[in-house]
Please model this.
Amino acid sequence: MCRAGLQSHPAHLAARVTLGRALFALGRLEDAEMELSSVLEKAADNFAANCALAEVLQQQGRRPEAATQFRRALDLARFDADLQHEIPRIEAMLVPPPVPALVPAPSPLDRVALNEEDGDALSVLERKLRENSEQAAREQRIIAELEDWLLAIAVDRSQHQGA
Model:
């Protein structure tokens, strides 16, 4: 609908802002950015286009550019009595999201059960790693022996079938 109206009235900036917002809502962020940027090339003081472009940039993860755009919108709102109610919303958009608290990863040493004769947890962990490595080597040897045994069975069967 916006595009049809823009064919008849291509310079209608409000329709272009509406189209940009519709593209944003559809997830077509690059198209929305292009449409809103074209409005701002013609009317840099267009509050709606500045806000909408800031939201597009924010959604794209381009926080510094979004913040700049939000500040432009904020400057416009400060001088327009009709837009004063928008100032708290825009200021809230400029606040960076809280950084989640870092939780240290559990240490493998915490999971090692110690006996009195073990000494420290690091020694126990090293011993367990050695044991696991030795166990893995034993398992590999057993697998190789089983594969050899299965191959010998297959060869024996093929010889008996051919005889």
